[in-house]
Amino acid sequence: MATVKKAVAKKAPATVQVRSGVDWQSLYLYAVCLITLLIVLFSVVSFVHGILNAVFPDPGYVDLTTGATKATKLAQAQQESNNQRQAFKGMFTSLTTACVAAPLYLYHWKQTKKTN
């Protein structure tokens, strides 16, 4: 009986690439995610604050020493109206900021999942 010996090819050990230092791409992506998430959070808080200011506007200032005349009541109503208008402008600004920052956050968060 003849024994057949097979030639065994030695495999080279698998090389593991070890990075020394900081992974700058991941650091960038996580930093952008953190910043945009904070922007969305603060704009939502500002939006809620705007809703409260629109529903409960700051009362207008009335000088009690002059007495409550028709002109002072009209001025107070004008100030309340201006406060409500400013509240709606602030709500629009907050909503716009959140609508810009949220997609940026989602895009960069998906990029972090692709790199890991």
Q: Brief overview, please?
A:
The protein has 116 residues and is mostly helical.
Layout of strands and helices, then pairs:
Blueprint: H1 24-55, H2 70-115
Helix pairs in contact: 1-2
Explain what the structure shows:
By secondary structure, the protein is an all-alpha fold. The chain has one domain. Helix content is 67%, strand content 0%. The chain contains two helices and no strands. Helix 1 packs antiparallel against helix 2. The two termini are 56 Å apart. The model has no long low-confidence stretch (mean pLDDT 84).
Main beta sheet, described? none
Helix content: 55-70%
Q: Any low-confidence stretches, pLDDT <50, length ≥5?
A: none
Helix and strand element order: HH
| Overall structural domain count | 1
- Quickly give the structural class: mainly alpha
| Total helical elements | 2
**N→C terminal distance:** 56 Å
* Form type: rod-shaped
Indicate the mean pLDDT. Answer: 84
Strand content: under 5%
Number of β-strand runs: 0
Overall radius of gyration: 32 Å
List keywords for this structure.
single chain; 116 residues; 67% helix; 0% strand
